[in-house]
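Blinded run. Sample ID left blank on purpose so nobody reads anything into the name before looking at the predicted structure. Input follows.
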Amino acid sequence: MWIDSHCHLDSREFDADRDEVVALSRAAGVEAIINLPGHIDHFAQAKATRERYGCLTGYGIHPMWVAGPNASSKREDIATLRSWVEREKPDLIGEIGLDFFIPDFDQSEQEWFFSEQLKIARDFDLPVSLHVRRSQDHILKHLRRIKVRGGFAHAFNGSAQQAAEFVKLGFCLGFGGTATFPQAHRVRALLRDVPLENVAVETDAPDIPPSFLGTMGSGQRNSPAYLPRIGELLAEVREISASSFAAATTANVRRMLRAG
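Blinded prediction complete.
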């Protein structure tokens, strides 16, 4: 059995066939899906998704809604997030983090939102799901300052040294579609070298489609139903059996969430 440690099942890309996607995922051996909205306007849909499908759920404000050409989050949204967390008792805080790749980003505003959301995770003793695009060192700076109960560094593609620092802080590193491409040498090297107890498997569906859906950046819709096949390809990179890889990564997610 597998756990998808990072998915956006509430995304509009699944509106037409969400029931079917969940049924196919379960039939394929996906025992749980962590669903992560990225804006307060998405929280109600995420709650409905949790109630209908039994997803593990986080609430958070994604950095792309904080600073960039389409920014719409306001600082008072932090109070709204805190009230949702207090009332709904999610499994984690996320997706939160920093993104220094998007155009016209406001670094100071991103860091303010990230810091405030880490404080919420700390106050409610929840793990976090981190967006870390071109921002690993800044993320680590905040994690050292505001201690949280570990979590997941989603779609990790930093250096081996940065990976080691996240591991020291108690995080799992998320690997998914990118690592299924043979040309993704750095990510596959990280997957081979990171301690197995710090590896999580994810889809980021509907994003980051795996190699069997076409070329990198093909734009094909990813799905949590593909997680076992993605996991099998990642297990080949680790040179262990798919069953052993599934058991280990599932145990890692449960440990992070204190779910068993």
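Unblinding after everyone has recorded impressions. The two ends are 14 Å apart (CA to CA).
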